[in-house]
Structure formats: structure tokens, C-alpha cells
Write a structure and sequence with these properties.
The structure is a single chain. The protein is an all-alpha fold. The protein has helices at residues 15-38, 56-66, 84-98. The chain has one domain.
């Protein structure tokens, strides 16, 4: 599973540099997959899938992930506040996410 991944191709204005960084990023993911496969790991988690259709940047990320093959598996996470404190924290988080900066 990939816990962190970064690619700085966006910071370059030169197309050939962006392409080189993108290829290096793809190569590093592939090398990780080979190491994990040799260790007996059967799944490689890219960490999320954009199910929408409006955000072009996220669709590009999906396409990058698709380039390795495999399958999208849907898992859902639910947070439920049971105590007053838990409900308060979830409400504050909801307000934080909905506020416009």
C-alpha cells in the first residue's frame, strides 16, 4: 500500500521535464509493486478513486492509476458520533469542510 506519494511535475513549465518526472514516478510505483509482489503482497492500494466526472485533475490521476491495470474496489468509511463529544467533533469537522476560505 502506498502511504505517501508525491510528484513535482506541476512545478515545471517545460514539457519534457514534466514528462520525465511523470515517467520517473511511474517507474518508482512499478518498482514498489515488484518488491511487494516478491514479498508475497497480493494487492497494491493507490489510495482512493475519484468517482466524479467534473474534476479534470482527479480524472488524470485516475488515468495514471488505470495505467497499471488492476481493479477498482469500493470500500466505504463511515464515522458515527455516539457520545456528545463525538457528535460535536463530527459537526465541527462538517462545518470546517463546508466553510469557504
Amino acid at each position: 500500500m502506498v502511504l505517501q506519494s508525491a510528484s513535482l511535475f506541476r512545478s515545471s513549465q517545460v514539457s519534457s521535464e514534466r514528462n520525465a518526472v511523470g515517467r520517473a514516478n511511474r517507474f518508482l510505483h512499478f518498482q514498489d509493486m515488484l518488491v511487494f509482489k516478491a514479498a508475497g503482497v497480493r494487492r497494491y492500494d493507490f489510495g482512493g478513486w475519484y468517482a466524479g466526472s467534473a474534476d479534470i485533475e482527479r480524472l488524470h490521476i485516475n488515468r495514471f492509476k488505470e495505467g497499471f491495470g488492476g481493479h477498482v474496489i469500493g470500500y466505504f468509511t463511515c464515522e458515527l458520533g455516539v457520545t456528545l463529544l463525538g457528535k460535536s467533533v463530527l459537526k465541527l469537522d462538517q462545518l470546517r469542510r463546508s466553510s469557504v476560505y
